[in-house]
Amino acid sequence: MKRAVIALVAALAAFFVPAVASAGVDPYAAEAQVNVDDTTPTANQPLTVTLSGFGANETVRVVLAPNDTVVNVTADAAGAASVQMVAPAVVGRYTITGTGLTSGRVDSITITVVAAGGGGGGLPDTGSESSRVLRLGGVAAAFGAVLVGVSMVRRRQRHSVSA
Q1: Residue 110, Cα to own-chain centre: how many angstroms?
Q2: Residue 159: pLDDT band by 50, 70, 90 thresholds?
Q3: Nearest of 38, 42, 48, 49 to residue 88 by alpha carbon
Q4: What local confidence, expressed as pLDDT, does residue 142 receive?
């Protein structure tokens, strides 16, 4: 039984080890990196995306998602490149991903597009107007207070008449 288990492990190792070794991935290759000059750009702001760690002279596909802007750029002999993009017009979170079309190396970075001039640190403008609701609530509270006052006066008058 022990020999059968050892033979099975050896057979599995002989089958899987060459497959892993021949997967075409260089274990000593530099990791791909995607960087951007501003991770919190304003809407429609120009951005410089820098790429490194890709293959020499490799075509790198750069995707800005979720609006799926796609740009292909060729890396230099050192595996580096840069590309100009424009931040989306809609405020929100976006991901810029670089994928080496030959090496398969991938990296991404997240940017947050903010409204122009919105760096004041205040609350965001949600488009709702609450002053009318607050006024209505104030009027209702005042009307309730008047009703309570009238009710108390009538009670006192009833108690004083019956006494």
Answers
A1: 6
A2: confident
A3: 42
A4: 82
Flag whether pLDDT at 48 surpasses 80: yes
H or E segment and range at residue 52: strand 46-52
Write down the pLDDT at residue 147.
Answer: 84
CB 61 within 8 A of CB 107: no
The identity of residue 115, as a single letter, is A
Rg (CA), the chain: 34
Beta-strand pair 59-65/69-74: antiparallel
Burial class for 30, CB neighbours closer than 10 Å (0-12, 13-18, 19+) = middle
Answer yes or no: are the C-beta atoms of 43 and 118 closer than 8 Å: no
Relative to beta strand 81-86, strand 69-74 is unpaired
Average pLDDT over residues 104-127: 77
Render the burial of 135-150: b for 16+ CB within 10 Å, e for the rest.
eeeeeeeeeeeeeeee
CA 71/CA 5 separation, integer angstroms: 53
What tokens were used for 58?
Answer: 């490799």
Residue 84 burial (CB < 10 Å; 0-12/13-18/19+)? Answer: exposed
How many Å apart are CA 54 and CA 97, to the nearest integer? 13
Q: Is 74 a residue whose pLDDT tops 90?
A: yes
